[in-house]
Amino acid sequence: MDEITTTINIPPRLAEQTQVYLEEGWFSDLNSLVIEALRRFLETHQIELNERFLQQDIEWGLHGNE
Amino acid sequence: MSEAILDAGPLIHLAELDALDVLSDFTSLYVPDAVWDEVTNYQSRALEHPKLKIKRLNASISSIALMALAQALTLDKGEIEALALLEGNPQALFLTDDTAARLAAIQRGYTVHGKIGLLVRSVRQGLRTHQEVLALLNGLPQHSTLHIRPQLLDAIIKQLQDEWS
After folding, report:
1. Residue B18 burial (CB < 10 Å; 0-12/13-18/19+)?
2. What's the CATH number where B52 sits?
3. Under an 8 A CB cutoff, do B99 and A58 touch?
4. Which domain does B104 fall in, by range?
5. Shortest CA distance from A11: residue in chain B
6. Which of A33, B43, B63, B163 is positioned for an S-S bond with A27, CB 3.0–4.6 A?
7. What one-character-per-residue DSSP string does A8-63 give?
8. When comparing pLDDT for B148 and B157, which is higher?
9. Are B8 and B145 in contact (CB under 8 A)?
């Protein structure tokens, strides 16, 4: 798949935090930071896991015995 | 009822739905400092609900194992502080909507649930009717920043309709 070019609106507080990382040199540009953030999110928020947790929640909600 | 330690997600998402009352039967709701600050920024009224027994707590993070896990799963400050509070109160229920935080909590042996579970549970606890909860779930895409695949949400609603019919 080819690269995607997109426009994002970053809320002020997130933008502020982002700026700190850029100013301190942790990332060369906003593009690199966003790619890293996306990669990390996708690694730790797998769809299958998410859906399994939701199903566990419903079971607990319906039949939990606390 | 029991004690719970909260991440920001359930407080923010339930406030968005005007459904914070589903937490009203918990004897104590512990909110670590970082979560408190996060919720204040996004939904401060969530912390002022008259029916909720919310207590703000300072969490000191001393466990190296917790820090390693937090880094591996890219947990944020609030999630790490919530997990640190759980170390001192492992019987408490951890309430989070974040997959990675939930994974970390399970790995540490804690009981974890999220907003959808709380909504469904509220029927069992007599806090909400099933019609009210189904209406809240139907309105989720319009009223909440919790992201669920539309087909999955439809399947959940169908499952609950069958269960409650």
Report:
1. exposed
2. 3.40.50.1010
3. no
4. 1-165
5. B42
6. A33
7. -PPPHHHHHHHHHHHHTTSSSSHHHHHHHHHHHHHHHS-HHHHHHHHHHHHHHHHH
8. B157
9. no
Non-local (6+) Cβ contacts of B142 within 8 A are none
Domain count, chain B: 1
In the predicted model, is pLDDT for residue B1 greater than 60?
no
Picking from A49, A54, A58, the nearest residue to B103 by CB comes out as: A49
pTM, two decimals, is 0.84
Please tell me the distance in Å from A13's CA to the nearest CA on chain B. Answer: 9
How many residues does this entry show for chain B? 165
Q: Token digits for B150?
A: 């539309």
Reading across the β-sheet that carries B111-113, which strands appear in turn?
Answer: B54-57, B28-32, B3-6, B93-95, B111-113
